[in-house]
């Protein structure tokens, strides 16, 4: 298990797809906007300060923005290029696999309303002119929020990823587990703890019904519970960092490296790992990893423990809030 965790850590530093150049994401977004007709542009473009920027959801519901469904083939291709520019290769593949699960649900549950093209783009600000702007890609089980500063992707939270089914039970995709590592590595860690360590790490014998932060616009640190990084042995520490690396690896290389270095250099011993529910396979469970500046939440409770929700939140940096504050400090308006 230690070898596996160390291998995952190496992914963060060497095997994420090549980082986006300073202008590539902005140029790709401008190309997409320029392809739209006036009606489409009116749906996708918002002011940067619009409150809609903070109105994120991960359930299947009506949304503001422009759905893939209302784009022609060329526009869809340009939209996908923007998404691909905002994620690592792993993150992009994971996003498209989550979207594909809508077709699985349509067949499994006879739910005709499921639609792989009901994923919406929203752009906040003017990519071609503004020093800071943002965009969102969102639909069922995906809410990816990106903030761009000086033409470079600078913040990617909140980012939410879900999988239903977590393990596809039948059909062409039987056995597919889109969020496999998020589940398996955490269970390996909790089972690798001693009985005494598990008493610290397991904060409830019953899993919570969902991630505790839901889709709150801003979050604060959760209860100070769980086992501290400093209380783990070297193998367990590598396992915990391996779990974090799975989430980091959804981000472009430069941003992932920066976040990883921040975690290592800022109070790493204060990281906490907390578990709720069963530690057995195919049972309902929840875990979280909390640091001084961020929170990862995961739950697998719905559908008898076959429905995953995961999210990364930054206490000060969600929606690029810290970047905006720093920008206003440097540039008095």
UniProtKB/TrEMBL annotation:
- UniProt protein name: DUF3500 domain-containing protein
| InterPro entries the UniProt entry points to | DUF3500
Q: Where is the signal peptide?
A: 1-22
What keywords would UniProt list here? Answer: Signal
Answer whether the UniProt record assigns the keyword Ligase to this protein: no
């Amino acid at each position: 298990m230690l070898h596996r965790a160390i291998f995952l850590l190496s992914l963060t530093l060497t095997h994420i797809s090549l980082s986006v150049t300073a202008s590539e994401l902005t140029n790709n977004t401008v190309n997409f906007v320029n392809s739209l007709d006036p009606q489409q542009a009116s749906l996708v473009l918002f002011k940067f300060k619009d409150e809609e920027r903070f109105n994120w959801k991960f359930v299947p519901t009506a949304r503001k923005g422009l759905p893939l469904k209302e784009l022609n083939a060329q526009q869809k291709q340009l939209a996908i290029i923007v998404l691909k520019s905002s994620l690592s290769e792993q993150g992009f593949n994971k996003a498209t696999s989550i979207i594909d699960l809508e077709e699985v649900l349509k067949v499994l549950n006879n739910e005709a309303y499921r639609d792989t093209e009901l994923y919406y783009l929203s752009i906040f600000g003017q990519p071609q002119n503004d020093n800071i702007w943002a965009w969102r890609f969102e639909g069922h089980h995906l809410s990816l929020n990106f903030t761009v500063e000086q033409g470079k992707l600078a913040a990617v939270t909140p980012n939410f990823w879900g999988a239903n089914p977590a393990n596809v039970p039948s059909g062409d995709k039987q056995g597919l587990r889109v969020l496999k590592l998020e589940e398996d590595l955490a269970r390996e860690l909790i089972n690798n703890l001693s009985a005494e360590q598990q008493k610290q790490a397991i904060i409830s014998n019953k899993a919570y019904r969902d991630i505790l932060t839901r889709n709150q616009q801003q979050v604060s640190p959760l209860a100070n519970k769980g086992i501290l990084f400093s209380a783990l042995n070297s193998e367990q520490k590598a396992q915990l960092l391996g779990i974090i690396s799975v989430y980091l690896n959804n981000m472009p290389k430069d941003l992932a490296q920066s976040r990883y270095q921040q975690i290592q250099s800022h109070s790493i011993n204060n990281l906490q790992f907390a578990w709720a529910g069963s530690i057995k396979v195919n049972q309902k469970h929840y875990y979280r990893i909390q640091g001084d500046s961020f929170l990862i939440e995961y739950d697998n409770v719905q559908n008898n423990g076959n429905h995953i929700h995961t999210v990364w939140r930054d206490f000060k940096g969600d929606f690029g809030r810290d970047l905006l504050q720093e920008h206003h400090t440097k540039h008095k308006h």
